[in-house]
Amino acid sequence: MNRSPKEILQNIWGFREFKGSQEKAVTALLEKRDVLALMPTGGGKSLCFQIPALAMEGICIVISPLVALIQDQVDTLKKHGIKAIALTGGISFEEVNDLLDNCLYGNYKFLYLSPERLQQELIQDRLRQMKVNLIAIDEAHCISQWGHDFRPAYLDCSKLRELLPEVPFIALTATATEHVAQDIVVNLKLIDPLIIKDSYARKNIAFEVYWEEDKQYRLKLLCADLKKSAIVYVRTRRLAQSLAQFLKSQGAAASYYHGGLSNTEKKDRLNLWLENKVKIMVATNAFGMGIDKPDVALVVHYQIPECLENYFQEAGRAGRDDAAARAIILTNKNDEIQLKNQFLSVLPDTAFLKLAYNKLNNYFQIPFGEGSHETFYLNFNEFCEVYKLNSFLAYNALLILDQNSVIALSESFSRKITVRFIITNEQLFTYLDSHPEIMPMVQTLLRTYGGIFEYDTKINSLLIAKKAMVAETEVLHTLEILQKDGIIAYQAKNNDLMITFLVPREDERTINVFAKIVKERQQLKIRKLESMIGYLHNNRMCRNRQLMAYFGEKDSLDCGICDVCRSKTTPDPDVLKTTTRHILEILNQNNRTSRQLIREMAYGEKIILSALQELLEDGKIHINTKNEYQIG
Q1: From the candidate CATH numbers 3.40.190.10, 3.30.70.1350, 2.130.10.10, 3.40.50.300, the one assigned to the domain spanning 5-197
Q2: SS3 state at 371
Q3: Distance of alpha carbon 186 from alpha carbon 154, whole angstroms
Q4: Largest CB tally within 10 Å, which of 10, 192, 261, 317?
């Protein structure tokens, strides 16, 4: 050991002291003991393995689920002058071979891998040859089928115990219930691990829920006077684009980020946000994972997350500088209905799973007892159309078959057709006057997809063909003509899924093997969704205490800063009196809505609404037909 952990902490990262249980984890690993670290988002989990790895001879193997997460950590290590390599997708065999040689002979300290890489014999052979000092499993909750983000490939992490039996493990996560923590220990084959659990409580974050019919207006208010950075989470790419455009129209420095952007676009937008050239990033949920930006003061969930684990992890990206921050869910009754429809109505039960598997075999004419290790391309839209299957249910059924190793599903071949009209309505009608033969198809396109003039819109070509009563090939041909004539921006990729059957066809018997597990997982998803909705409606218990209780911390105290805690405090009588007087002065000049009063007055929203209520009860003001407050 060349340097002590404290020296590494100070000299490389510039911290004088360890935070929370970091030192306990480091000490245990240096003593060759396995560790399970349950620490909050922003709690400094990565230092728990990076410091002991640097204090010992050899290389540390890090398993991580997201390319963005891997790349961010590797870039950070390189900035500190530490040699690190990432084996992500899209790297040729020759390049992988060269990078592994660097790990063997180039004095590298960290090798980052996705869990899928562990299935490759080349990787396994080279790992046996390396002087590995430590194995770190990041986002370890992905190994549990009872976790919120189960990833079957994570189960292969246990192979590392067989390949390198003497090397200590550390498993790290910021979102694990007690059941999931037990699963991590068992599935990773941890030996007498030191289990470290720092409180998940984030005392500087005010957790809030706003029930709003006009969510855009509330979002505008939240972002209006923002001094630091913000993230607004949504579930769809289109909403990310439209909300960013709305905020920009209101004068905010906003952009959007989602999986449909190119790697260059993602990198450019992320850098603009990291450098504070863009204050607000409207993004789908993967954004921000592993990115250490300390000055995020606001995280808004514009749509309800599907579980508290996802919400807490995403909300935890606020306030990493320990300054006051807010994590807000904007919701309404329609959102709640939509959430239930979106997630509960598309959970395939065992009967549907058997049906989908049977139809999949019939589609490819696979005889009973055969089909193992045969690979096919599947036109998913056509498959659903032939057998009249709900596409959402069918897709989720394929994912379950993939998770349970009945098939191997490659999504890299999934169709992506995007269309955006790049001319005005008037110009389009002029064009169609001279091309009447394509008018029915174009009209169908316009009726089916709103916003197609504003955004790159993902379309279903088979659906358009069916509605327009033409062949799908004709739809694709027409789109190519429209692109050539400068009418639309059009992008199309291969429309197939690639499926490999991993077991011989046995129909119901194939599904029966894991039917009980599927049922239990569906029930778990329902319970998680119910917990999420229960959190939204519970305005009696401190938000922070609700979240801590969900993760097994029963003795937490009221935070005093969430919306529930603040609602229990009585407004200062003198401030309330001053506010009512000020409101009357304004209303004597002109009638005002509550929104206008909140925008014009320097008092907080709660005190203004309390003052209005008092004035209404005293009969000093009333609400007119325009929903304005007026004197008398």
Answers
A1: 3.40.50.300
A2: coil
A3: 13
A4: 317
CA distance 34 to 189: 10
Distance CA 434, CA 467 (A): 23
* Cβ burial, residue 182 (10 Å; 0-12/13-18/19+): middle
The Cα-based distances of 368 to 358, 505, 571 in angstroms read 10, 5, 73
Is the dihedral angle over the CA atoms 344, 345, 351, 357 positive or is it negative? negative
Assigned token pair, 608: 């203004």
Comparison of pLDDT for 532 and 340, the residue scoring more: 532
**For range 79-107, the mean pLDDT:** 85
For the stretch 371-403, pLDDT in tens is 888 888 888 888 999 999 998 899 889 988 987
**Topology agreement, domain 5-197 and domain 346-414+497-524:** no
Domain boundaries, the chain: 5-197, 205-339, 346-414+497-524, 417-492, 573-631
Long-range contacts of 149-155 (CB under 8 A, 24+ apart): 149/65, 149/309, 149/310, 150/403, 150/521, 151/65, 151/115, 152/402, 152/403, 152/405, 153/114, 153/115, 153/116, 153/118, 153/119, 154/63, 154/65, 154/115, 154/187, 155/187
Closest CA to 472 of 459, 462, 486: 462
Distances in whole angstroms, Cα of residue 364 to Cα of each of 371, 374, 500? 9, 10, 11
The helix or strand, by DSSP H or E, that contains position 543, with its residue range, turns out to be: helix 543-550
pLDDT surpasses 80 at 150: no
CB 175 within 8 A of CB 309: yes
Tell me the sheet residues that pair with 328.
208, 300
Q: For residue 586, how many C-alpha atoms fall within 13 Å in the half-sphere facing its CB?
A: 21
* Interatomic CA distance for residues 2 and 11, integer angstroms: 13
Residue 177 dihedral angles phi and psi, to the nearest 5°: -75, 175
Give bridge partners of residue 300 from the DSSP assignment: 232, 328
Mean pLDDT over each residue of the chain, to the nearest integer: 88
Give the CATH fold of the 573-631 domain.
Answer: Arc Repressor Mutant, subunit A (1.10.10)
Element (H, E) at 282: strand 280-283
Summarize pLDDT for 35-89 with one digit per residue, the tens: 999 988 777 899 999 999 999 999 999 998 877 678 788 988 999 999 999 987 6
Model confidence at 223, in pLDDT bands (50, 70, 90)? very high
Q: Residues 205-339: name the CATH superfamily.
A: P-loop containing nucleotide triphosphate hydrolases (3.40.50.300)
Check: CB of residue 387 under 8 Å from CB of residue 359: yes
Question: 276 CB contacts (<8 Å, ≥6 apart)?
Answer: 229, 295
10 Å Cβ neighbour count for 288?
Answer: 25
Residues 6+ apart with CB under 8 A from 368: 505, 506, 507
Q: CA-CA distance, 316 to 552, in Å (whole number)?
A: 17
Q: Give me the half-sphere count of Cα atoms (radius 13 Å) on the Cβ side of residue 609.
A: 6
User: What is the per-residue pLDDT for 70?
Assistant: 83
pTM: predicted TM-score of the whole model, two decimal places: 0.71
The closest of 594, 603, 577 to 628, measured between CA atoms, is: 594
Checking phi first, is residue 64 left (phi over 0); if not, alpha (psi -120 to 50) or beta? beta
Q: What is the CATH topology of the domain spanning 346-414+497-524?
A: Arc Repressor Mutant, subunit A (1.10.10)
